[in-house]
Design goal:
Layout (H helix, E strand, L loop, with lengths): L2 E4 L20 E5 L3 E6 L6 E8 L6 E5 L8 E3 L5 E3 L5 E3 L5 E2 L3 H10 L4 E5 L12 H10 L1 E7 L1 E5 L3 E5 L2 E7 L4 E7 L7 E7 L4 H6 L5 E3 H9 L12 E4 L2 E2 L10 H14 L5 E9 L3 H12 L5 E6 L8 E6 L2 H5 L3
Parallel strand pairs: 5-10, 12-20, 15-20, 17-18
Antiparallel strand pairs: 1-22, 2-11, 3-4, 4-10, 5-6, 7-8, 8-9, 12-21, 13-14, 14-20, 15-16, 18-19, 21-22
Length: 334
Amino acid sequence: MLHRATIGDFPRETAGSIFIVRIYTRMQTTLNKTIELSGIGLHSGRTVSMRLVPADIDHGIVFKRVDKEEGKNLIPAKHDLVTDTRLCTMITNEHGANVGTIEHLMAALRGCGVDNVLVEIDAAEVPVMDGSSIAFVQAIDATGIKEQKAARRAIKILKDITVQDGDKWVRLSPSNIPVYKGRIEFAHADIGVQEYALKLINGNFRHDVADCRTFGFLKEAEMLRAAGLGLGGSLENAIILDEHGVMNPEGLRCTDEFIRHKILDAVGDLALAGAVILGTYEGHKAGHALNNAILHALFADDSAWMPVDLHGEIDDSEIVTFTPADRAYGKTIN
């Protein structure tokens, strides 16, 4: 049975503009060709080489540690393989092979609508590049994406699910398109209270959040270095603040770059669901731990979500058509 859902709860754009809503394509996608990238690991300070290799239908995003033993070096990008969320998002397979700082790459793949990729990497962390997703997005755009002959998978949120830690919380709620909303509160004058909302359609990820950098405070950076971490961090790949303000000579890329980066992180962390999420994410003072916790809570409640195959683009007709998938099939998503 084909289902139709309206998108009436979202206002049209500025009067006179063309309103086109898409989740990229109704079909699964991969890259046109292999992408080769290299950069510094944020915590190791070492040069990391990485290849994004086109992959077959239903492959998903899988990391391969080429510096590890063959047969024990594949790490699927799944929420239930997350083993550390303190400084980044890290995933680990049953053999102990791991890879961290995956969130900016995962955000770029989800934001650009890429479903199936093998990520070959020769170290335990994805290169930090400039601290945002823009280098990955530009590489994907330069290479191009190709559609595959299979319907795109999606996870439709059916009811509100919330996880909380003190005054921090994350909620997923029903929506007909992917929406990410966030709020942060910092005592620092250059941050303060910031809010932002992103509809993950129309290439919004590319031009609204992709170039927004990770940030931290000088005192924390010094403590990390003393502990042998953050060795690759610099003003070249992060916004650093001291008691006087932003230390980067070029300043901020936008006045609310901090919350926009938090939205970028959320897109990457929730990409570990393994499929497009048709729902609204709301994060209040959230981070990697709560982003992962919300996926565990979601998939623990079968009444909160439904696996679907998309059979039409979400476009200016303001409807989305989909076929509910078998529940067992849905379990393979996560």
